[in-house]
Amino acid sequence: MFKLNRRKKVDINGCVRYPMDSTTFLQFDFETDLTYVDVFIKGLESILAKYPIKI
């Protein structure tokens, strides 16, 4: 989730679990400024391209 906070910073948090039914996961939560959001999103898109979500 991306959320703009009162200090005009972006709070980013989420969870990565693979495979989906696994009990092992990586949970993350960090703050950045708007300068790096585009780079972060492109990185996520790259990961999704290499490891597409299978439903």
Structure in words:
This protein has 1 helix and 3 strands. It has 55 residues and is of the alpha+beta class. It has one domain (2-50). Strands 1-2-3 form a 3-stranded antiparallel sheet, with no helix packed on it. It is flat and about 35 Å long. It starts with a strand and ends in a 5-residue tail after the last helix.
Label this structure with key terms.
55 residues, flat, three-stranded antiparallel sheet, 1 helix, alpha+beta, single chain
Blueprint (SSEs and pairs):
Layout: E1 2-4, E2 10-17, E3 25-32, H1 37-50
Antiparallel strand pairs: 1-2, 2-3
> What is the topology, as strand order, of the major beta sheet?
1-2-3
Count up the domains: 1
- Strand segment tally: 3
List segments where confidence is low: pLDDT < 50 over at least 5 consecutive residues. Answer: none
Question: What is the averaged pLDDT score?
Answer: 86
The major β-sheet equals: 3 strands, antiparallel
Structural class: alpha+beta
How large is the radius of gyration?
A: 13 Å
Helix and strand string, N-terminal first?
Answer: EEEH
**What is the share of helical residues?**
25-40%
How much of the sequence lies in strands comes to: 25-35%
Count of DSSP-assigned helices:
1
End-to-end gap: 21 Å
Shape: flat
Compact summary:
By secondary structure, the chain is of the alpha+beta class. It has one domain.
